[in-house]
Amino acid sequence: MGSEVSIIPRTRNVYYAAYASLPTSGVRTGDLGYATDRKVFYRWSGSAWEPVSIHSSSGAAADIPTAANLPDGSLYYETDATLLKQVQSGAWAIISPTPTFASLSDTKVVCKTADETINDSATMQDDDELVIAVGANEIWYLQLWVRVLSMEAADFKWQFTVPVAATIEGFDLNDVGVATGAAPLRSLTLAGIQAFLVAGASEYALCISAVYVGGANAGNIQLQWAQNTADASDTKVLANSFITAHKLN
By the 8 A CB rule, do 225 and 149 touch? Predict the structure, then answer.
């Protein structure tokens, strides 16, 4: 006559409470506990609760859980700072930093909509349109494409004005030496008016690359220009000249 063997599996208790309230007596090896405050599963080793899962949640940076209470590898996404952090050796470490792409407010484009004309004047004047506003302590990289029409007798000169305590340095492509291939860095403000010599009644391109470093004052980066030598002929900065500027800080 055969015999039947029944196997009764050993059951495990599962405890559900804040970590400090998980029992430490009357618990059998292999029992499970879920710490509701830590969102972590634990297994009783016979002498201690050992983590068998990691914490994973999101919220404001100010609400991040205490790293020392969580298993290594736990994750938290700071929704306001857009940072993903991980517990490493008992402390939070950033594992996905915020991208540093410029926002639309960090880029400015100004395109001249109409020709502007002067004659018989070597006195610097503000360009009517080629100007951008900047804040205090800001740093900007600028590129300008200035379409110039002038006579050889008049030529052309230009400079920038900037807020007090600010600097703007750079060069234009005419500075690049054929032999050296190097462009000298220089101040582009009143201290160093830039002469641009023309060879006849033709259109010329003035290509400027500059870095503006602001001080404590907000204001404008303003392109100024004039005839290098006053002459009765017309000197023009033409429509579709433009500035592109990118904020660096």
Answer: no
pLDDT of residue 187: 76
pLDDT the model gives residue 137: 94
Cα–Cα nearest to 83, from 73, 98, 70, 71: 98
Give the neighbor-by-neighbor strand order of the sheet with 91-96. 56-59, 75-78, 83-88, 91-96
Closest CA to 19 of 31, 2, 6, 36: 36
pTM confidence score: 0.57
Average pLDDT over the chain, rounded to an integer: 86
Of the candidates 130, 182, 121, 188, the one whose C-alpha atom is nearest the C-alpha of residue 156 is 121
CB atoms within 10 A of CB 246: 14
Residues 158-192: b if buried by 16+ CB within 10 A, e if exposed: bbbbbbeebebebbbeeeeeeeeeeeeeeebbeee
| Cα 112 from Cα 168, distance rounded (Å) | 21
Domains along the chain with CATH numbers: 14-96 (no CATH), 104-247 (2.60.120)
